[in-house]
Prior knowledge:
Oligomer: single chain
Helix content: 25-40%
Structural class: alpha+beta
Order of helices and strands: HEEHEEEEHEHHHEEHEEHHEEEHHHHH
Number of strands: 14
Strand content: 15-25%
Number of helices: 14
Largest sheet: 8 strands, mixed
Amino acid sequence: MSSVKIADVSEAEAFLAAHPDVQQFECFLTDCSGVQRGKVLRPVELVGAYKVGRPLPCSVLSLDIKGADVEETGLLWTEGDGDRMCRPVAGTLARTPWKTTPTAQFILTSFEADGSGSASDPRHALARVADQALALGLHPVAAVELEFYLLDGQAAAAGRIAPPTAPNGFAQSDLQAYLVQDLDDFSAFLDDVFKAAAVMGLPARTLISEYSPGQLEIVLEHRDDVLRAADDAILWKRLVKGVAARHGYVATFMAKPYAELAGSGTHFHVSLNDAAGNNLFAGSEPEGNALLRQAIAGLETTMNEAMALFAPNANSYRRFKANSYAPLGPAWAVDNRSVPIRVTGGPAKTRHLEQRVSGADANPYVALAAVLAGMIEGIDKRLEPSQPIIGNGYEQIAPSLPRFWPEALRRARASEVLRRRLGERFMDIYLTIKEAECDRFFAEVTDRDIHWYLRLA
């Protein structure tokens, strides 16, 4: 059984009949850094794209976050930058309501000439891990929470970051977690976000004003198809950014835009069902049943080596400090947000775990693949977790997660589990791109270098 669902041409034909006013279709895949890359098609091209796919150069999946080639991946001149056929993902074709020109969009996923999923496509990395779970009779269920900052658009265009000013003239400035007034002030933007989500079929649910000025979180409802859960996260980011721009704001999922304020994370809520849809984590035991504990143990065991997937950029590591709601070392607890793995409370039938390590800048396909890989590893090996934390985890957990990007990349490069679960070739491509990014980032001489060292070194 494969978790990859390719769209049938009837989906395109039905959409064209229902939306004759649409003038263009954006089709894209997501690269290793979480950036969307693709083409804009005209309506006459849509049916053909759904029948046979659309070609994209293989180098599209070998770019760093700034769009520069990483030749070391072997996906550029080694292969003559040949095309890969990309096929539409079922259920992702929808209008993009924030566009002035009537527009729709759909997600692509890349295939090789023999029909196998391209090793360089992050969506197929998640599919590989999901298929490993299905082979064990485990059906992953996932939901994604994404935190983001809303910024003043004019300031951002000038290279500065500042909280946005609401239409009523008030600018956010205080640490007001869960403040309903903030939601009221930006209700015009938020109303358009929820309207767009409804048009696109995205299951946007709970809205929260987070801990810092301009920081928001909207929870996406769970899916019993983990690839679709990750698709939702990709589409959600595009939606929020698009609607924000229409209102004169900039929305950023950067992990740590403000040095002095809270970072933004991605939280993955995951459980495992049987073939009949029953939650295999369900149980009245406060500490969770045996299967849940094994999954937790796998996440604890693999957390250090997977950090380069949860925190993929230099800025990602600025989140991780004590009392910041970002973790410092592997641990778990029941209904406790001072640890990286939280077992939720509530009714026994809804029991699931929440992985709280990833930054909002993480690629949803890659990070969710690493979460599932850890869970399956723990179940396969019947591992036992540590004792659950009671109280403040920051006072009890020894810091052990990689503190800086190069260290995280080295640990991931040495990981046998990640290669085996996500794919040897995918991990080599992903890490090669990120290692090149890391070298390029630290090769730049910044204003801070000049300020600190020019006269004093």
